[in-house]
Design goal:
Elements (H helix, E strand, L loop, with lengths): L4 E6 L7 H14 L4 E6 L1 H4 L6 H17 L8 E4 L5 H10 L4 H5 L2 H10 L5 H16 L4 E3 L5 H19 L11 E3 L34 H10 L16 H14 L3 H8 L4 H28 L1 H30 L10
Parallel strand pairs: 1-2, 2-3, 4-5
Helix pairs in contact: 3-12, 4-7, 4-13, 7-8, 9-12, 10-11, 10-12
This protein binds tryptophanyl-5'AMP (TYM).
Length: 341
């Protein structure tokens, strides 16, 4: 049976946090065994908001190292840097020309980020979801494992593929590009901020205490959890909508301790915040330890990572080029492999 194609990516903005791991990368690790998987570091997305050029290359390599440290096996999965495969930018342009502007203006993440950037909002920020669609469609991905916050962007990628490309440019022929499905695992799909349980944990939150970064030292993890927002009630529960922090931290405990949600609720149902936070801190520190150790080894030996990224590019490029060529042909562009006479 043909294996399903999977593609996903993370932006190399800052250090990845628990939300990126539990909402996305942890699931990729499972998927790589049964599927044909492509995982890219989306550096072109990271420059859609103001960034520090002195840091971008380091953070791109660090993100790739974290993929591997979290368990992505480059023998099984194709790991590469988005900007190393120029077809991403090229398909993005072609898709730009067939995507209605008002589809992009509706995107929640665009509106939120544009609000912060004001008059400095870049064209790239508006175009972010089209580049993301290009990432996915170039590989004819069947499944795209992401956290809950990416659902709207996935819907856009599906609409571009189906309504703007396949239906308009190949009404009677085979589909030009595959229409992908989002794959959202409910557990970990929405990890919330430590300082406000009603907001998601995010790299762009200016308060570093709002998130646990995968490279935070144990004492930093303990300090952040100690300071995490609590409420006046005793006992941790999932079921009280008025207690989003309790629900979020208990979910983290269940996920990282490897037990079920029911077992975590039973264990912590009567516990005071102090005792619970102590336990949660140790579970988080224990979960991050092997990731940090492996990450340190990888960053200490750049040749290994370079080889992985170079092999990844070599595997990704022909797949991407073939899809790009199909779209070019469908849109009526002159083929570029003309014989010289
Ligand atoms: P990024 O870097 O913002 O997020 C990367 C992944 O982490 C998930 N995530 C979360 N999951 C649970 N709880 C959270 N608090 C949380 N925060 C982030 C995101 O849902 C995502 O899966 N636009 C994408 C990057 C991208 C992409 C792609 C993804 C570019 N091209 C093609 C899939 C396919 C993004 O959100 O990056």
């Amino acid at each position: 049976m043909e294996r399903k194609r999977v593609l996903s990516g993370v932006q190399p903005t800052g250090v990845l946090h628990l939300g990126n791991w539990l909402g996305a990368i942890r699931n990729w690790v499972e998927l790589q065994h049964q599927h044909d998987t492509f995982f890219c570091v989306v550096d072109l997305h990271a420059i859609t908001v103001p960034h520090d050029p002195a840091l971008l290359a380091h953070q791109t390599r660090q993100t790739a190292a974290l993929y591997l440290a979290c368990g992505i096996d480059p023998q099984l999965a194709t790991v590469f840097v988005q900007s190393h495969v120029p077809a991403h930018s090229e398909l993005c342009w072609l898709l730009n020309c067939i995507t209605p502007l008002n589809w992009l203006e509706r995107m929640i993440q665009f509106k939120e980020k544009a609000n912060k950037q004001g008059s400095q909002t870049s064209v790239g920020l508006l175009d972010y979801p089209v580049l993301m669609a290009a990432d996915i469609l170039l590989y004819n991905a069947d499944l795209v494992p992401v956290g809950e916050d990416q659902k709207q962007h996935l819907e856009l990628a599906r609409n571009i593929a189906q309504q703007r490309l396949n239906t308009r440019f190949a009404p009677h022929r085979e589909t030009i590009l595959n229409v992908p499905e989002p794959l959202i695992f409910p557990e970990g799909a929405r990890v919330m901020s430590l300082t406000d349980g009603r907001n998601k944990m995010s790299k762009s939150d200016p308060n570093d205490n709002s998130r646990i970064n995968l490279l935070d030292a144990p004492e930093v993890v303990r300090k952040k959890i100690k300071r995490a927002k609590t409420d006046a009630a005793t006992g941790l529960t999932f079921d009280d909508p008025e207690r989003p922090e309790a629900s979020n931290l208990l979910a983290l405990y269940a996920l990282l301790s490897g037990g079920s949600r029911a077992a975590a609720a039973e264990e912590c149902g009567q516990m005071g915040w102090g005792q619970f936070k102590g336990m949660l801190s140790e579970v988080v520190v224990d979960a991050l330890r092997p990731i940090q150790q492996r990450h340190g080894e990888l960053m200490g030996d750049p040749a290994v990572l370079d080889r992985v990224l170079s092999q990844g590019r070599q595997r990704a490029e022909p797949v991407a080029k073939a899809s790009l060529e199909r779209v070019r042909t469908a849109l009526g562009l002159v083929p570029r492999n003309l014989e010289l006479s």
